[in-house]
Write a structure and sequence with these properties.
- This protein is α+β, with helices and mostly antiparallel strands.
- It has helices at 8-18, 43-53, 59-67, 97-101, 111-122, 167-182, 191-208, 212-224, 230-241, 259-272, 279-289, 294-306, 315-328, 333-343, 372-379, 431-435, 448-453, 502-505, 562-565, 572-587, 593-597; strands at residues 71-72, 79-82, 89-90, 124-125, 127-130, 133-142, 148-154, 162-164, 418-424, 446-447, 470-477, 482-487, 510-517, 528-535, 538-546, 549-554, 600-608.
- It is built from 21 helices and 17 strands.
Length: 629
């Protein structure tokens, strides 16, 4: 909007009428005695100032001076008063700020960096009273309408100046800040506050009807004015748009209506980052200060940290959550999401301050399913009794088969080897009894990256021989009904002491073992791939490929013939893709990508994948410890 169309008299007049001191202002101070504005400067006074300065002032600042020759901004700990036409003057960089902001030699600076470095010597200073701060209009940073950017430099902060694209934008921001500073005062009620509160009510209904894109700007504006309820509603929408981003929910952590939804979310952030300042004690003090009971906060934090917390809302939505958790627990994350998506319209808000099922995000099994795309689908779905068009479903995230193992696994990096046991028709909960170490039990759902990384080595466990290779495996069920136990990345190499767990796993049906060991830097340590298939305790066939050497046993189906799958001219990646695709086609094997890369699964520790060395066989175990100097 061009400055000529902006009514400064109306804007400043409204500000004058709404003026009250902040609740923290000194009762005897200037803030309680004067209104912020002054009579406008005449055209002659503005022209005289421009002649003195040698420049025509930007349009929005000229319009302001004509309406009020100065202003009591009352910005806390920054600018207090803007001068009039006779007060303004060039800043001239008296503190040599230019040298601090000039880019280093040899560095290609951005346009923003160049403008900021040059601003100090050419800027126009506007303030006449401040807290070690300056309001600086920069004629070198202008737009197509002739507006100059305004920088607010807070000398005590050590921060880069705040930039506003024009004087008008600055004053509008100060007006919003004026309202936000007084929003908690019960006597601060006027046409502006009533209009923003009506916008909050409207936005809440829009959000529940799935029209979150219309609700967002209403809530953002109300939040900028500090209106009650705007922050908690806005934060819920932002939380679903960026599920990993932490938002604040204030005293809702203590409200019985919202505690089950909000407190676990607050605990999740603490549990995921134990290095946070002050640790758990500081977090607990914060929760107590916000009204939560110490015992409740401790219990929720403990359950979230050990993976036993479960989101348990009431009604039909709660039953869908239980069903979805049962599917996601074994890796069927697409199925779980479909259950949640179908039940979303049945979700009931626990109170008027909740517009989304926030507690879902803190569930250790279901929370990771809520990607930003799925978060937007939740927001776009009418719920809590409201109606509207349903959004287009987000596509499924798990590809068929498991050839994706040859692609980047996490953070763009490939897997440093992997191995897996599949058991046809078995329940995943039975795997510890089939191939687990003595006393093995399933853990609570865990972050697999942390689980694999923290798996103890043989020398770290009492009673474990150095030659043993006990793996911490993630457990689940494939779309085709195979139970699986997956270890990736594998920290051990496929060598001659390898003992396939296929036979032990196949006591009640067919079992398959795959181990992919990629090429290592040592020339005598080539890439290797193993496949073994067993049924009812007996191995049916197997092969191991090391570089160009193939060892085989049993009647291998033609489709799985290693000579065909590992041609001498094939690359390591092509060969791996070929064999994984063949195993999917021939045996119906697959693995859930999302669950293994981003989700949470239960784990257990297997028996050793290697046998003890026989007479005459050597074995060496080397571990490295990094010491910080």
């Amino acid at each position: 909007m061009r400055s000529e169309s902006f009514n400064w008299h109306e804007f400043l007049g409204r500000w004058q009428e709404e003026w009250v001191a902040r609740s923290d202002a000194d009762e005897d101070g200037e803030q309680t005695l004067v209104r912020p504005g002054l009579p406008g400067a005449g055209e002659a006074a503005i022209a005289a100032a421009e002649e003195r300065l040698g420049r025509r002032l930007p349009p929005s600042y000229r319009g302001f001076l004509a309406a009020s020759d100065g202003w009591h901004v009352d910005q806390t700990a920054a600018i207090h008063r803007l001068g009039g036409a006779s007060d303004i003057d060039w800043f001239r960089d008296p503190y040599d700020m230019t040298s601090l902001y000039e880019p280093d030699p040899g560095v290609d600076p951005s346009q923003e960096e160049v403008l900021l470095a040059g601003m100090w010597r050419r800027a126009l200073r506007l303030e006449t009273d401040s807290d070690m701060s300056h309001a600086l209009l920069d004629p070198g940073d202008s737009d197509q309408d002739g507006e100059w950017a305004l920088y607010v430099y807070k000398g005590w902060s050590g921060e880069v100046p705040d930039r506003h694209p024009s004087f008008r934008a600055y004053m509008e921001a100060m007006y919003r800040g004026f309202h936000a500073d007084r929003a908690a005062q019960p006597d601060f009620v006027n046409a502006t506050t009533r209009a923003r509160d009506a916008h909050v009510d409207e936005a809440r209904l829009l959000a529940l009807r799935g029209r979150y894109e219309e609700a967002l700007p209403l809530l953002e504006e109300a939040f900028a004015f500090g209106r009650p309820r705007s922050a908690v509603l806005l934060n819920q929408l932002r939380q679903l748009l960026a599920p990993s981003r932490s938002q604040g929910y204030g005293h809702l952590v203590a409200d019985p209506l919202y505690l089950p939804e909000v407190l676990p979310l607050e605990a999740m952030e603490q549990a995921n980052d134990r290095r946070r300042s002050g640790g758990d004690e500081h977090w607990l003090r914060m929760m107590v200060a916000r009204g939560a009971a110490t015992e409740a906060a401790e219990a929720v934090l403990g359950a979230v940290r050990d993976g036993t917390h479960q989101y348990a809302p009431p009604g039909p939505w709660g039953r869908a959550v239980v069903e979805a958790r049962g599917a996601a627990r074994w890796g069927a994350t697409d199925t779980a999401w479909q259950v949640l998506r179908d039940a979303l319209p049945l979700w009931e808000a626990p109170g008027p301050l909740m517009v989304v099922p926030l507690g879902l995000l803190a569930d250790p099994v279901l929370g990771p399913l809520i990607t930003p795309e799925r978060g937007r689908e939740i927001l776009a779905t009418p719920r809590a009794g409201e109606t509207g068009p349903a959004p287009e479903p987000v596509p499924a995230l798990d590809p068929p088969g498991f050839a994706w193992l040859a692609e980047p696994f996490r953070y763009g990096q490939p897997l440093d080897g992997y191995r897996c046991v599949w058991v046809e028709g078995a329940d995943p909960g039975d795997l510890p009894a089939l191939i687990g170490e003595e006393g093995a039990e399933l853990s609570a759902p865990v972050d697999l990256a942390r689980s694999f990384r923290r798996a103890p080595r043989p020398h770290e466990r009492e009673g474990v021989e150095l030659w043993e290779d006990r793996a911490v495996v993630a457990v689940g069920r494939t779309a085709e009904g195979w139970a699986f136990a997956f270890d990736g990345p594998s920290h051990r190499h496929l060598h001659d002491l390898f003992l396939s767990p296929a036979a032990a796993a196949s006591s009640s049906g067919r079992a398959v073992v795959v181990w992919c060991d990629p090429r290592h830097p040592a020339p005598d340590d080539p890439a290797a791939f193993h496949l073994s298939v067993a049924e009812h305790g007996e191995e049916l066939y197997a092969f191991t490929v090391r570089d160009t050497e193939i060892q085989r046993s049993g009647a291998i189906p033609e489709a799985l013939d290693p000579a065909r799958l590992f041609p001498a001219e094939g690359t390591e990646l092509d060969n791996e893709l070929r064999v994984l695709e063949a195993l999917h086609t021939e045996l119906g094997l697959s693995l859930p990508r999302f669950a293994l890369t981003q989700g949470r699964l239960c784990t257990f520790t297997t028996r050793s994948w290697t046998r003890s060395p026989r007479a005459g066989e050597g074995f060496a175990y080397v571990s490295f410890v990094r010491h910080r100097s």
